[in-house]
Each structure stands twice: as C-alpha cells, then as structure tokens.
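Researcher: Good morning. I'm working through a list of sequences from a screen, and I'd like to move beyond sequence-only analysis. For each chain I'm collecting a predicted structure so we can compare shapes side by side. This is the next one on the list. No need for commentary yet; just the structure.
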Amino acid sequence: MIRHSFLDDYSEGAHPIILKALSETNLVQQVAYGDDNYSNEARKLIKAHMEGVDPDVWFVASGTLANILSISSVLRPHEAVIAAASGHIVVRETGAIEATGHKIITVPPIDGKLTPQSIESALNANAHFPHMAKPRLVYISNATEVGTVYTKSELQAISALCKTRGLLLLVDGARLGAALSAAKNDLTLADIAKLADIFWIGGTKVGALIGEAIVIPNNSLRDDFAFHIKQRGALLAKGRILGLQFRELFRDGLYFRLADHANQMASQLSMAISDAGYGFAAATETNQLFPIIPNDMIEKLKTQFDFYVWEPYNDGSSVIRLVTSWATDESCVKDFTATLNKYTK
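Model: Good morning. Structure tokens for this chain:
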C-alpha cells in the first residue's frame, strides 16, 4: 500500500494551473515589489468579491507574516490582542506577536471560537488602566484551529461588539477557503469585508506555492502599510510570484473549487471513521478532522499513514489530527478507511 500523508494541507507543491502560469510568464519582465500587472489583476479579481467595499490588498509570503503585519501595524505599544486560548497566534507561532511587543489576552474557546461574552469577559478582566495592557484588537480565525467555522450571525455579533467597545477585528484566513466552502457556511467574502477591519486570504493551503493576501477594508488602517511590509522583510522584489498565483486562484473560481475538494475528502473520511465506531474531539466542518483513536490503533495506522497525534484523550486513547488538501485523492481516503476497518475488526 502507498504511504499517505494527512499531516497538513501544504505538503504538496502547487496546483498545475499555477505552475503553468508561473512557467509561461517566467521571462516576461514586470515591475518589482508587487506593482506588477499580475498582482494588480489579482487585486481586481479579489475586490470583485467585495460588493461595494474597495479595500487595499497586499500579498505576503506566509501566514505568520500576515498576522505579524496585521496586528503590529495597527496597535500602539501598550495595546493588546484578545484571542482564543487555542488560537493560532497563541499556540502555533512561537510568540511572534509577543515578539512585536504586544500582549495576547487569551480566553477559553467554545468549539474553537470566540463569543461576544468571552470578549466582554476579557475586557472586564483587563481594565485596570494604566497598569494593564489595553485590549484593542480581537483576533479570530475562520476556519478555527479545530476546523470549525463562524456563522454570519456569530461574526455579526462579534463585529457589533467590537464597534461598540472601540475594538478592531482581525480575521486570520489561513483556511478561509475551507470555511467559505463548508456545508454550514453562510458567509461570503463581501460579508467579511463589511464586518472585519482587516483580514487575510490564505493561498498556501489552497494550491499556491506560497502566498497570502492581506485585505484592509478599514480606511484608517491603510496609511503607511507598505512601510510596515518593507520593515518586516515581507516586501518581495519578485512580488509578481505572489500576485500571479492569486490571479490564477481567483480568475475562474479555482480557489473555491480546490477548497471544496479538500472539504469533500474530509467529509468522506469523517463519515468512514464515524461508521467504524470512533468519536471526535471537534465537529468536522472543514478539512481538519480530530478523531479519538485508541493508542494501539494509532501505532498501527502510523505504519502506513502520516498524521499528528494532537493530544491525549484518556489513558487508552488520543486525539489525532487528519488534514485533507486540494490534492488529496479519493484513493487516500479509501486506503485509510480500509486500514482502519481491518484493524478495528
């Protein structure tokens, strides 16, 4: 049996359409630093989804850079970020935000998500000014770190609270394609552009070689953003590489088709695991799965498949994380299902 990886959704390179575009345009001379024709075309294609909102769009190479830039550029030195304790900037970015000098105030998540109530609790618990860092920005990710998605009503409620309490709202969109393609999703890019002050669209996890698109709908946050990008080492001389990939992703819906495929593979895998009698630590809503598997079964599965053992569940079982991607073939899902069923029997 061929060994399959469910470690993440960026183990493969790039979608063939993107590779073809990179190859065909390789010797075409372009203006540097993101002001090339391809990047400008990509900006227009992304803005076409915004329905009346005309944001600034910037391309950077990684999600960590996108979060560092989005947060550090809008906060004063004494201002802090409110995030779920499971949030990516809290548990998966090596203190990158704290390294910029900003405190992260964590609150317990509900299904991986923040709520207006949890945000209010954080505000109330961090109001002894000037002796405490001042909460100024709310960070959420969609999909969340456990693969769940925000509904329109949930995001509207958070956005309304932020406006009432003078907070900025940032949406980490590393897996935004998966969220917008989820079966239970009722949000659009236009909705997010109207509800968030700044957000970003992940390309790395949806078929691009590298690249994320930072979108800034809030006029007051746009000034001097280019300086922040340059100062953080994120302004690529060959910015065309990033822009061209987003042009291909958004030219005819490739972005959403690839995200939908990843979700479909996850759904099939989730149903098979459930049918085999195993539960989940979180609902499977996008392309991340968190099944609870006996430890002896995990060792058997690891001989043929790559995945993360996420956390202990009890003395005999652990939560594992399986991630499907734009390139996951249905045969991978079938092989995992067959192996699981064989050992379960």
